[in-house]
Design a protein that fits this description.
heterodimer, A: alpha+beta, 17 strands, globular, B: alpha+beta, six-stranded antiparallel β-sheet, five-stranded antiparallel β-sheet, about 30% strand, ATPase_NBD (chain A), Actin (chain A)
Chain lengths: ~425, ~450
Amino acid sequence: WSEEETYTANKDLSTIFNTRYIPGTRETWNVRCGFAGETGPRFIIPSEVSYPHAKKVVKISECSRLTESYLYETLVDFIHMLYFRHLLVNPKDRKVVIIESLLCPSSFRNTLAKVLFKHYEVASVLFAPNHLMALFTLGVQTALVVDVGYTETFALPIYDGVPILGAWQTLPVAGQAIHGSIEKKLLENCKVTTELAENVLLSSLLDSIKEDVLEDIKVRMCFVTKMERAVEYQNAIQEDGSVDYAKLPPLPPIVDYPVDGNKILHICGSIRETAAEVLFDYDLEQQSLPSVILDCILKCPIDMRKVLSENIVVTGGTATLPGFTHRLQGELLRLVQTPKYARSLAVRRFAFHAAPAKPNYTSWLGGAIFGASEVLASRSVSKESYLESGVIPDWSSIAERVSTKDDDRPTIQ
Amino acid sequence: MATYMNIERVKYMCSCDKWTAFSLLYFCKHCLKLRCSKCVTHEVDNHYCPNCLENMPSTEAMLKKNRCSSCFDCPCCQHTLSTRATTLLVGATSPTSPDSSASQPSGAAEEAPPATPKKVYYLACGFCRWTSRDGGLQDQPVASGGWNEEENPHNQQISNLVEYYQQMALVEQVERDRKRTPSRRRALLQHADKYGLTSVVARHRAGLSPHSPSSLKKGEDAKLVELEASEASDDIALLSEDYYNKPVNLNEVCTIGQSISQPELQWDTTSKLKPHRKTLLVKRSKRCRECEHNLIKPDFSPSSIKFKIQLIAIYLVPEIRVVPGVQLHPKKESRVILTLSNPSQYEMHVIVLPSELPEDVGNCKVVLPKTELVLAAKDETAEFDDAGEPPRDYKDDPQVVVFRKANKLGFVVKITPNESAKEAWVSFMIKYDYRQVALEAEAPQPTWLHQHVACRIG
């Protein structure tokens, strides 16, 4: 079969939603690239371009906020690196599948299409929504897909292969919020041993912690605790906001974590255990990860709700945290019995799919499976039609296309 | 002077209207235009391994997922692994584990006569001291190859999915073709028969629930792959108690970089890390976008750094450099010496003209020489020939040409920098006669070419 590249550019919603959580920190999203029909991406690389001459590293998420021509230049360099450093193939006359979030700004996708068609002269490009693609790894038609990514959580129900766009829900809480929570807790009460002194408060030495350190802490030692322990933690919080450690269950062991080569952080068990609690805590608008899922189900027609709740797919890097799915299920079961939902929502069972992939590349794999089939040519935008019209059809303008060509529906069948 | 360390100092305007450092430019002999790396088409020429410098044909590279078959990277630090040999005792004594006996010196063999020493190999990282034994791999009896790679545990399931959706796509295609060309049914039937779908189409023609996929499943579908749809489960494994009680040894947990370096497997503990095969690199050839002629074609051998074709601007276009050490004062005229060198084997005439660009990068007032500058031909032997023939007298105006040496000359421009600007940039245009290098004896006809140049003086 043809060897198409599949990039997953899980474009995040940076400009709209990130302002409430640690503004000003860097944002990245990793790009997965590989070939259609393969069982996993070849590479997962951060979406940044380094210029050794100018001694700088440009992150694509940063320049997407700047001018379009700057984004164009950076994307040209980035895709050059993808093709000639990683995939090692000629881009000319190849088919490309790009898996994007439904919330990806049009300006970004238009610029990306311009780069691919005009500069690299690819044969065709398919922009596929990541939620729909995740279903191709399962062989099911109906599911509630929850993507817990870096800046936001995005839940979208898909029924019989059609995304129910009216029911989508997002929450600006995901991996980045966990990083913020770890940083806050570390600065509050983490002890440090340095060459000079022992057990000093971290906040006396540093004002902030680099995000890759926070990510490393999250990946290597944090986990999502079970329901009962989370409740005990919540009960231990006193009125003034401080934590009564006497009421707490025995804490997980302290981990000594070396930073900068001269400091050792003593990361206490409560930080490791409660770092991800930010996903389940209610924000100012009384929203949390489980409530977003339930709201999403509530917005769907009544006959779909039971099927959707019994077919939940969780994707995204944050879902790889140990214990995440179990806790999510517990929270959903608890929340559905609260007065807010008990009347309106009759579902009592939440079942989760396990994709044949790690959650952080599930939708990539779906795209790879889709790209291996022959429908790709009829679904994607070809070079000729792009050069003729100069636009990439948006998903909001799909209705127009459907009325003219009823078989171009972007679904499975 | 300013070429090797500070290439951004003198920039030439590429044919795509971008200012680019001179040493990064190509010159297309056929279009007679400068090309930068963004206005040429890059092509993969051949694959090679950066460690063993072994060539790999592109079909083989595709099959092997662009990875070298004999070189490995360390899963811990991504450094290249080296193969180590050691002696292992095999024989009368029960086979000992490689970890305990392999580390013994080979002299141990003499103390136990019935045991025979056997040479075994393992992989070790010279940088972080990781060895293949840490990953639980048995030592290999042969020096290269023989290392099995772990496969994605979901391979079977994924290939089923791929097959299933490929068939769905075919069914869809047949249906669509039928809808679009109702008049050519007969031809279509043959087309459908090719994929063993005749009865499916027949069913559709008979008007039997054409859109329901169940009709496919019930009918003859010996050829259709049955897909087991994934079953959702509400029985999610509870987190093991170890997370709450056991201390974490950071050295045993992978960092995110280590785990995503092998995306399909993504190990969580370092004891499971396996060496991964080295990624190949490519040699690229570059083509002019307009005339599709090759500008750069590297030599086939990976260890050679020569080119078969190289049309680099430095070899074909006169080069301008700035002689350093100029003191500039705002609103004061100062003399700056620029050098001009001729790369071609013919005499070259250069005229310096003011820039005609609507948006000029130059921010200084500049007085350019008005006379034509004549550059001697480049003679590669001249550098080694001390005596040499006496230089021809070019009758230069000493006010303009400061010095002359082989194929190079220095000329003076007078610059009045602007007060507000941080950096003083001068832009001008050079007009030079380019002669196509030809094998024939007769001298080629000169072509006059224009080129915009910008220099940062200070």
